[in-house]
Design brief:
- Three copies of one chain form a homotrimer.
- Chain A is an alpha+beta fold and 138 residues long.
- Chain A is built from three helices and eight strands.
- In chain A, strands 1-8-3-5-6 form a five-stranded antiparallel sheet, covered by helices on one side. A three-stranded antiparallel sheet of chain A has the order 2-7-4.
- Chain A is elongated, with a radius of gyration of 16 Å.
- The model of chain A has no long low-confidence stretch (mean pLDDT 96).
- Chains A and B meet through strand 1, helix 3 and strand 8 of A and strand 3, strand 4, helix 2, strand 5 and strand 8 of B.
Chain lengths: 138, 138, 138
């Protein structure tokens, strides 16, 4: 009989302003190790309407490309109807703040070039929360 | 020993035409309450190739910005090869009709400004279905 | 008492080059049938930073539209800072290589026009892996 569980963890951190990148890969990998869940999934969710979670290569040049890319997709200076941070909302809608990742033999199966990054899309530094849910068999 | 379950619910509703927004937050929150699942996830999925599920602020001005944003990302009048509603498919591919949300202590942990919205991307009113799956411990 | 399980399967395949489409619907549906999971979810994840998983209609004309659409969203010839395949990374970030799908009565509830497609975004043919996790009650 399998021992199926869900383990919920909360992680809080600060961002330094618009399009700050925070690498959460090691934090989430460690929570999975501590949970002793061997096979299952981890669902990472940020309860914010102006944040993003992506999987991508954590390479300085690429992060700069991403910054320019986000500004091309949902420009900051365009005249929106929603006041002050509509572009922040549009970016978070397009690249939503959640990811589901596979756990096999007690580890998240990140690809070699996949890091889990939080991207601040709001226009000033914020306190942010992520909910890490580890679901599976111990 | 935990009591792990999956509870499947189907919800049907009508849309009034292209880029109609339907707020599903309360419906899904109520299904979670009724399920008596305390900790886990809810997966919401719409089996349609021309629909979208997003988390965003349900604010009239922002919804108008979203309408313009979708038309910028995948314009309606461009010459596509697929007949009649290619732009509807492209929008649904870019912003897919599924979301996974965390349940903690019997409630979905929506952020303050996060509502779960279905967006009709097809070109006429449609009957739509969402599958709500609540997975976790009672 | 329910019999809750997670079953992990690995599938490897080759792509023929940039923007090759590989339809995985039947493969994943078959793994679900073989798993004997009746109700739950299947999480499909590709551990690659230059691949995409989408749900869309597998129609030749639409696939051609998608090719043009990807090139419009993240153009290939633009001057990026990341060398050689920045556009491949940006496309995979925007349309990430994972999907969660509902299983009801032993089958994935694809919509009529929803096929699960892997899209190669890297610039040459690659060996690719997908992790198929079937989670639920037998």
């Amino acid at each position: 009989m399998s021992n199926f569980k869900v383990i919920n963890k909360i992680y809080k951190f600060s961002t330094r302003g618009e399009i700050d990148f925070v690498d959460l890969s090691n934090k989430v990998q460690k929570e999975v190790a501590d949970s002793e869940i061997r096979n299952g999934i981890v669902h990472v969710f940020s309860p914010h309407a102006t944040g993003i979670l992506v999987l991508t290569e954590n390479d300085c040049a690429l992060l700069e490309d991403i910054k320019i890319f986000l500004d091309k997709l949902a420009p900051k200076h365009k005249e929106y109807l929603h006041p002050s941070n509509a572009h922040s909302h549009l970016r978070s809608m397009l690249l939503p703040p959640d990811k589901t990742l596979p756990i096999i033999n007690g580890r998240i199966e990140f690809g070699t070039w996949q890091s889990l990054l939080f991207v601040e899309t709001d226009v000033y530094p914020r306190e942010r929360t992520i909910i890490i849910q580890i679901i599976g068999e111990q």
